[in-house]
Amino acid sequence: MTRTVQGAQVLITGAAGGMGRMYAERAVAEGAASVTLWDRDAAALSRTADELGARSRGRTGIRSYVVDVGDLGAIAKTAQRVRREVGNPDVLINNAGIVRGNRYFWETDNGEDTRPTMQVNALAPMYITREFIPGMIANAYRPSRIVNIASAAGTLANPRMAVYAASKAALIGWSDSLRLELEQADHTNVKVTTVTPSYISTGMFTGARGPALAPVLEPEYVVDRVWRAMLAGAPLVELPWSVGLSRALRGILPTRLFDRIVGDGFGVYRSMERFTGRG
């Protein structure tokens, strides 16, 4: 699987629109054996499945499942259906995510903000991967890929998105640990790619301003970079390049100096002040 996903079984969460749909389109274009779509938006999911089916002209099997990955109990039930009706995926893209922003932490609500954000962004990828990774490991002669879409917010604290940052930091820590565990256990057919992009112009972060050296990214560019890294089994994708620079500076500079130079000077700490999201 170093060049395409031709012949592979691909599963994508948050696949009804946005970048999730773009990953699905890429898989269909490359001749995947099947593309399985998970999303909670039944109407949008149905439209996407129909359009992808027409585009594939029967060459790729398109299956869709209405599931809210924030409902952790629904993950196991849906995964059982996928294994029975489609088979275990060779490629898993944990793309689904939510954000609650433009509030200080003490203004958030545990039930409406903290719990769903942690469930969708951090716990759901773990639960979903746990369902399918045994099958990936067992099929030792077929390359498998797991892609976890995290965020630069998980590497760099930012006001007005404390819970979101926490959820993505948890995802990054788990994802890279999983990569190391697979390598240590010599399950070299399964590769994990962790993705930490800055703001992307998908509508999810409408109103957020790109800091200096980190302009708002175009989704097509991100999808292309992630896809190529996934095929190659690359461990980490940081977009843009300044995300890696910020991470390095955070480890070198004293905290207060970092706050002044990067947080305030580059505008990182003010980037969410006008955030509205999808409304």
TrEMBL record:
GO molecular function: oxidoreductase activity, acting on the CH-OH group of donors, NAD or NADP as acceptor
Gene3D superfamilies from the UniProt entry: NAD(P)-binding Rossmann-like Domain
Entry-linked CDD domains: 17beta-HSDXI-like_SDR_c
Domain of life: Bacteria
Keywords: Oxidoreductase
This protein's record includes keyword Oxidoreductase: yes
PROSITE patterns: ADH_SHORT
Coiled coil stretches, renumbered: none
Pfam family, one: adh_short
Similarity comment: Belongs to the short-chain dehydrogenases/reductases (SDR) family.
Name of protein: Short-subunit dehydrogenase
